[in-house]
Amino acid sequence: MTQIEKIYSNALIEFIKDKNSSILVIGAQLADREAFYNAGFSNVLLSGYDERVLEYKPYKWTKENGMSISFKDQSFDYVVTHSVLHHMSSPHKGLTEMYRVAKKGVLVFEGRDSFLIQVAEKLNFTQRYEVAGCYSTSGVDGTNIPNYIYRWTEREIEKTINTYAPAFKHKFVYKHWSLYPNGPDLSSLKKIILKVLRPFYFLFINIFPKQQNGFIFFIEKPTIERCLQPWLYLDSNNKKLEVDKNWVKKYYSKFRNKK
User: Fold this and answer.
1) Which residues belong to any copy of the Methyltransferase type domain (predicted)?
2) Least trusted range by pLDDT, from 3-7, 160-164, 208-212
3) Structure pTM?
4) How many domains does the chain have?
5) Across-strand partners of 109?
6) What is the DSSP string of 13-48?
7) What gap in Å lies between CA 41 and CA 28, rounded to an integer?
8) Residues 96 and 79 in one domain
9) 153: number of CA atoms within 13 Å, CB side?
10) Looking at the structure, do residues 85 and 175 belong to the same domain, yes or no?
11) Which of 96, 85, 122, 123 is nearest to 214 (CA)?
12) Pairwise CA distance, residues 212 & 175, whole Å
């Protein structure tokens, strides 16, 4: 089992406790099938653009556009994707679609836009566009056009979700990891330089773990009972969220009176 496969399987076990949970995987490949199978999950639906005949058993596969998922709200307990959001022309739309379809949580594996990765991009030690290894359906939106590699920060994730669902207080969990660059596009000289820098890199990220180039983020889906913002309430008559005018008057009139 490779380093990435171990990270993938271990994260599934850590964040999704019930192995009978219903799970939708966005942009699935054989690596996703292996990770879920090795972790012992049973109720998994794999989806994506790739219509090649691949051996996904015992799981089923369906064609889905990750930016416009055909399933209704909260159709699955969890929605998972591994290194796929950066293949979308609107990664933020892909993330909010995952959030919409999930009932309990969203689990994502993606690249992190750390300071070190920004330096590596400028020095051409890593790709900005995923040209190397690109094949049919692996580019932007399932085409063969190499996609821009959109890397995330924690703040971007939280802003995206809080904007999409402002009625709730959200719980975000992050785990950072590294995949040291050694791509097919690197020259022999650059590979030598990276080999020399390798021990210094791992020493640095031990001190500053957020400077790693990969991370996992888990978004726990909130409930009205536990996570509703204090200025809102659920109207039991029409089953709609309403603004608590008394709360607003109590807390914000103080600020207005001071002006």
Assistant:
1) 59-107
2) 3-7
3) 0.91
4) 2
5) 82, 216
6) HHH---TTS-EEEET--HHHHHHHHHHT--SEEEEE
7) 15
8) yes
9) 10
10) yes
11) 85
12) 10
Residue 139 belongs to what domain range?
3-228
Residues 124 and 201 both lie in one domain = yes
My answer on whether 161 and 244 are in the same domain is no
- Strands 76-82 and 23-26 turn out to be parallel
pLDDT class for 247, splitting at 50, 70, 90? very high
Residue 225: name the closest of 167, 157, 160 by CA.
Answer: 167
* Same-domain check for residues 51 and 124: yes
The whole-number average pLDDT for the span 165-194 is 86
Q: Tens digits of per-residue pLDDT, 25-76?
A: 999 988 999 999 999 999 999 998 876 667 888 999 999 999 999 999 999 9
Give CA–CA dist 237/70, Å, rounded. 31
* CA–CA separation, 74 and 43 (whole Å): 15
Residue 247 sits in the same domain as residue 165: no
